[in-house]
Design goal:
Elements lengths: L1 E9 L2 E2 L5 E2 L2 E9 L2 E6 L4 E12 L31 E13 L3 E21 L4 E23 L2 E14 L8 E2 L8 E12 L2 E11 L2 H5 L5 H12 L6 E6 L2 E10 L6 E11 L3
Antiparallel strand pairs: 1-4, 2-3, 5-6, 6-7, 7-8, 8-9, 9-10, 10-11, 10-12, 12-13, 13-16, 14-15, 15-16
Amino acid sequence: MRNEQFDFQADSFTSRAGNFVEGGEIDLNGTVFNAGVVADLSEEVNVFAKFSQGFSAPTFSLVGFPNFLGFDPEGFSIQEDIENLRPQKIDEYEIGIRGNWESVNASLSAFYNFSAFGETFEALPEVAASEQIRSPKRVYGVEATVDWEPANNWQLGGILSWNEGDLDPNNDGDFRPISTFDIQPLKLTAYLENQTTSGWRNRLQVLFVVVAIARLKKTSIPPQLKAMQLLITLAVSNWVVEASKLESRTCLTISFFLSIANLPVVIVQAGLQHQEED
């Protein structure tokens, strides 16, 4: 159990839309808790169930800006228009099964979370912007993982994840799908890794992403925003080669981003890692 608190204060200002926004101060706090249970079916296999709560403040950078372009309502007040600034409390439920054998590890889990006052960003095609929506929101999904060591110094495996989400913008019980700004598409990650020496490791990784074309076709989002949604969802780095050194570890990663119209997206990563001996 834990108690979380956020304090927010802002002076009065004039928004980019030219409207006056009255400043103020608000205090957000809430008590949340986590609970879980694990049961062993055998020495290698166990099942688990977990309940957790999250508590987060809204995106304060959008205070007085229901969408990114700043078309805020005239007379917005931080002190009085508390509805847009209410925190979101998320209840999440998860169940799953895990196995740990001599050379294989595997897991399968499913989750569901709900927030009565969630935060969602929805595209506005007519102005090429996004609107902030505070409404009931639910997200659910399934994830499967497997890791296998077929021989000494070799390891391969993958992760398959699927997520869906809905929101009720009118708070009338009529839920509709959330856009890919908030929900990632079906993803399959596979890797092959070799521990060449005690201080050198090579890894080839492929990320296979199924673009939610059916969902996007139901919207009037311009093509350029559809591409932007995918890139934001995947959080693809805007560089191709990344080299970094953290502590005594040196890494080099090369990424290839492949996309063909109306087909899944494939991201290939090849890398090597050097760990200096102590």
